[in-house]
Design goal:
Layout (H helix, E strand, L loop, with lengths): L1 H24 L1 E10 L9 E2 L8 E17 L18 E4 L1 E2 L2 E2 L1 E8 L3 E10 L16 E7 L2 E7 L4 E12 L2 E10 L24 E3 L8 H13 L2 E3 L2
Parallel strand pairs: 1-12, 10-13
Antiparallel strand pairs: 1-7, 2-3, 3-4, 3-8, 3-9, 5-6, 8-11, 9-10, 12-14
């Protein structure tokens, strides 16, 4: 009986080592999401150096995403429309903590070897968060000041975002970093130049509100800023 138990334990241990070895030898993509400030900007805020937006400061930037998919260019069956989602989510990602640009690691996904040029994720407004969470029912959130007056921007878009790299990144064993990077310095100029000084405090409550159904009259700025933020996203391997 003792020999039988010993043999069973030995076989289980060998199987565990084998599985662990297979996982360690597999190709993995480590997904990160990051933000960067404008070159030369230091301190505890993301400021803007262009003359049109002098006096604009961002102090908080967060996004909520889900359903991350990677496209393998070496696999004819690989598609960004596939149901094979590597990261299901949702994930709430804080990219500007106390005004400092932040990088957050989402996790590792085992993937087939190949050349990866694109990934897709979906902005996701998460209704399962506590109602007092700033990202409750929102997918993008920013706080800051306009010439010293506080403002808040948010959007509840549920759009897909495709991020690519023309040369691609070769994945062949080991861990390869994929970072989706948002350039904060381009948020007000990437697609359309936004003069954030045009945002108004329509209800005179001391807070400039910029979102799709705000009471201050800044809905058009909210949609343009959302599109600009999406445009700044880039895929890098670091």
């Amino acid at each position: 009986m003792k020999n039988s138990i010993y043999l069973t334990l030995l076989l289980s241990a060998m199987l565990l080592v084998s599985c662990s070895s297979d996982e360690n030898d597999g190709s993995r993509i480590r997904l990160k999401v990051a933000s960067v400030n404008a070159p030369g900007i230091s301190g505890k805020s993301a400021a803007f150096t262009s003359k049109v937006n002098e006096g604009i400061v961002f102090t908080d930037f967060r996004i909520s995403i889900r359903d991350v998919v990677f496209k393998n260019d070496d696999d004819p069956n690989s598609s960004l429309d596939t149901d094979e989602i590597q990261f299901r989510g949702p994930y709430q990602i804080d990219l500007l903590t106390d005004g400092d640009a932040v990088t957050q690691t989402i996790g590792d996904a085992f993937v087939p070897d190949g050349l990866y040029k694109e990934l897709r994720f979906k902005f996701h407004k998460d209704e399962d968060l506590p109602t007092n969470d700033v990202l409750y029912d929102k997918s993008i959130y920013i706080e800051g000041t306009i010439d010293g007056t506080p403002f808040v921007f948010w959007h509840d878009t549920s759009e897909n975002l495709d991020v690519g790299r023309t040369t691609g990144v070769e994945v062949a064993g080991g861990v390869v970093n994929f970072t989706v990077e948002f350039d904060i310095s381009q948020f007000l100029s990437s697609l359309t130049t936004i003069d954030l000084h045009q945002a108004v405090d329509g209800n005179q409550d001391g807070l400039i509100e910029i979102f799709p159904n705000d009471q201050d009259g800044n809905q058009d700025i909210a949609d343009t800023l959302k599109d600009n933020i999406k445009e700044t996203a880039d895929l890098i391997d670091r």
